[in-house]
Design a protein that fits this description.
With 120 residues, the chain is mostly helical. It is built from six helices and no strands. The radius of gyration is 21 Å and the shape is elongated. The protein starts with a helix and ends in a 7-residue tail after the last helix.
Length: 120
């Protein structure tokens, strides 16, 4: 999925005016692709990967319960069965904290990839 998304975004970026201008100025093809095409194509990839990490975190409950793996997901499942509300709230709060940190990292990567994106 990520490879297909990257391919389509890169093809769109390589047909842009600024990429053709860089190539017309005599810049090497590999440098045009990496500096101009790839940097702008990575923004949707980073967005997708950030959302995908959040989805994987929510899937830990199911995976750890099915495969009998010890972890936070299995602990949430057992705590729900035993009606231990404080443990459930604590672990869900930890999951939310992970989600917020992942989104913060994605936003920082946006600023690194595209210099037009600046946070004040």
């Amino acid at each position: 999925m990520i490879a297909r998304l990257l391919r389509s975004e890169l093809l769109d970026a390589l047909h842009s005016d600024y990429v053709r201008t860089a190539a017309a100025k005599g810049m090497k093809r590999s440098r045009v692709v990496t500096r101009h095409g790839m940097r702008n194509s990575m923004i949707p990839i980073v967005t997708f990967m950030g959302a995908d990490l959040a989805t994987m975190m929510s899937g830990t409950i199911l995976v750890e319960t099915i495969f009998n793996l010890p972890g936070l997901g299995e602990q949430v499942f057992r705590s729900i069965q035993q009606q231990e509300g404080t443990v459930v709230v604590g672990i869900v709060t930890l999951f939310v904290l992970f989600f917020v940190v992942i989104n913060l990292i994605v936003d920082i990567i946006y600023g690194l990839l595209d210099p037009r994106i600046r946070y004040e």
